[in-house]
Fold this sequence. Notes:
Elements: H1 3-15, H2 19-35, H3 39-63, H4 70-80, E1 82-86, H5 99-113, H6 115-120, E2 128-132, H7 139-150, E3 154-157, H8 159-164, H9 170-184, E4 187-190, H10 195-202, H11 206-221, E5 228-233, H12 241-245, E6 249-252, H13 258-269, E7 274-276, H14 279-288, H15 294-311, E8 321-323, H16 325-339
Parallel strand pairs: 2-5, 2-6, 3-4, 4-5, 7-8
Antiparallel strand pairs: 1-3
Helix pairs in contact: 1-2, 2-3, 9-11, 10-11, 13-15, 14-16, 15-16
Bound molecules: adenosine-5'-triphosphate and magnesium ion.
Amino acid sequence: MQQADYIKEIAKYGLENDQEKLLFTLNELIEHSKQSRKVNFALQLQSILKDAIRQQETKGILRHGSSKHSIREEDREVADFILEKLTSDYRLSHLVCSSEVRENLDYFVQEHRSLDILQKYELPISNKVLFYGPSGCGKTLAAYVLAGELEKMMIVINLGAIVSSKLGETSKNLAKIFRRAATEDCIIFMDEFDTLGKVRDYSQDHGEMKRVVNTILQLFDYLPQSSIVIAATNQQDMIDDALLRRFDLSVQLDLPTEAQIKELIDKTLKDSSFTFDNPNKAKRIMKDSIGLSYYSIQKTLLTAIKRSLLAQKPPFVKAQQRIQTEIWANLIAQERHHLL
Length: 340
Ligand SMILES: Nc1ncnc2c1ncn2[C@@H]1O[C@H](COP(=O)(O)OP(=O)(O)OP(=O)(O)O)[C@@H](O)[C@H]1O
Ligand SMILES: [Mg+2]
């Protein structure tokens, strides 16, 4: 059957209220999508299915007058702490980094692809990763890369909401998120991890925040081997030492070298019809970009492309799009100026 056939059947069973056949066909479609390499689509369907099943169970409990009203509450409370739940198409090839970083990430991915072998020999699995380094150098991207390579859903935790919420329930809710991620085989991503440290310094409610940090320490310590937690920060020094020590893998993502800038530009222009009007000048600009982040360099290049296009007189001939290096040079100079 083709995807369209499954969709037709799903629509039919949905309208006929035939729950059993609907679920069966949905599961078939998930399998079909996995086999036809639409893994993200399959994961998203799976997640929708799980959410629906969970809600139904909750409804069932309520209908039968059970005392477990709290399950529904739990869903709502936990939802406030989840920024998003996503799948990712990013792969290691999207990230420009040193060979050391690439190797570390590669091994990490391999470990999780070969869990069975490692577990057979009772070897510990690395499952807590910290990305640190300056802004715009690929920490968030690297987390997406891991989710993409491992083909897992990723839950992005809203640490901001956690620390600004009424703290009483925070630890309990964090524990719930971790439990759910484990049962649903999702990666947990704590972006801007330093948020935890900041509050420890500024909050009046010092004791409660300490409790949150302690909860995280415990959750880390009892994390099932197959679960994965990723944290990212550009202020590593704000983070409690005890927390830092818990990570199996700490990966520094730094500002790009000249060679890495070139790699970024090549990757950005790959599969496009844009080339520089003056390749030698472009090389000099890349050298001048040392000290800027990947993000700023890529952003200025894309702006230069847009402005070069807009500066052109029609008709636009696709095969001959030239990036005006002069425009790019000015944008890079502005970025450098902002740094001062
Ligand atoms: N190492 C890199 N390789 C390729 N592209 C990168 C890299 N770093 C940054 N980029 C580009 O810049 C964008 C922003 O990067 P990202 O969000 O990962 O930075 P960050 O390190 O998380 O920054 P922040 O600390 O501000 O959150 C990425 O989506 C990507 O387009
Ligand atoms: Mg980030």
